[in-house]
Write a structure and sequence with these properties.
Keywords: Oxidoreductase. This is NAD(P)H-dependent oxidoreductase. It holds the Pfam family Flavodoxin_2. InterPro entries: Flavodoxin_fold (IPR003680), Flavoprotein-like_sf (IPR029039), NAD(P)H_dehydrogenase_qn (IPR051545). This protein is of the alpha/beta class and 263 residues long. It has one domain: Rossmann fold, CATH 3.40.50.360. Helix content is 33%, strand content 12%. Strands 1, 2, 3, 4, 5 and 6 form a six-stranded parallel sheet that branches. Helix 1 packs parallel to helix 7. The protein starts with a strand and ends in a 29-residue tail after the last helix.
Length: 263
């Protein structure tokens, strides 16, 4: 198995740094090939701007989508972006590891998505008609690949429960898991979550790594999150709204889970 670990934490001696080293060792010892994109160590450029497209007509207004599409089609993307796209093509499993900062990922990782997910590569692909609306949400370039989040947070697990102050963790992560991973076709595994990171001691750290190791060992066997696929009859096309007879008793993000898997 080919595994890409996209890692976003600025301190190698952190909890995340220790987990990163464990992940790489665990996977390699099991015979898997592993590549690591350590974004802070790479000094990854986080902003998508006109500098990403040196071949564009500078006299024209900068259009992120159109310029991204042209650069992808003409092979004029910057070398750092093209290299990450090649890693994604190579990978069977992509792991995104990061601390939760302000209810989302660090800006450097968000910038990775914005720059690497070029138009024509991760979005803007496929037929758009009254039958289909592009290859996305269960289809796309990453179909057949798996992805998983490994997320640390200082909050308690209860804080991210159904009645917790932060809202359910599945809702907090929905824009990432559904919108950034399932959208271009990944099968999205349930996340591996570490709560109350400031209360980590040696015993709990060992227990955390043991649980993480089990998840890694089963990464190609575990069932992915059962999101509804866009072009398979659950949504009206082209309005992309769930058909009224489906999930009548549910609201919010849970609408987009297949009925038998919804809570």
């Amino acid at each position: 198995m080919n595994v890409l670990l996209v890692y976003a934490h600025p301190e190698p001696r952190s909890l995340n740094g220790g987990m990163r080293d464990f992940i790489v060792e665990r996977l390699r010892s099991a015979g898997h090939e592993v590549k690591v994109s350590d974004l802070y160590a790479m000094r990854w450029k986080a902003t998508l701007d006109a500098e990403d497209f040196p071949q564009r007509n500078a006299a024209e207004r900068f259009n992120p989508s159109a310029d991204s599409k042209l650069a992808f089609l003409e092979g004029t993307q910057t070398s750092d972006v093209a290299a990450e796209q090649d890693k994604l093509r190579w990978a069977d499993l992509v792991i995104f590891q990061f601390p939760m900062w302000w209810y989302s990922m660090p800006a450097i990782l968000k910038g990775w998505f914005e720059r690497v997910y070029a138009y024509g590569f991760a979005y803007g692909v496929g037929e758009h008609s009254d039958r289909r609306w592009g290859e996305r949400f269960g289809e796309g370039v990453f179909k057949g690949k798996r992805a998983m989040l490994i997320v640390t947070t200082g909050g308690w697990e209860e804080h991210y429960s159904e009645r917790g102050i932060n809202g359910p963790i599945d809702d907090v992560l929905f824009p990432i898991q559904h919108g950034m991973l399932f959208y271009p076709g990944f099968d999205v595994l349930p996340p591996f979550l570490v709560y109350r990171t400031s209360k980590m001691n040696e015993q709990r750290y060992g227990e955390t790594l043991a649980a993480l190791g089990t998840r890694l060992d089963r990464a190609m066997l575990d069932q992915p999150i059962a999101y509804r696929r866009q072009n398979h009859g659950d949504y009206e096309i082209p309005s992309l709204t769930l058909k009224p007879e489906l999930a009548e008793q549910r609201t919010g993000f849970a609408l987009h889970l297949q009925a038998e898997f919804a809570a």
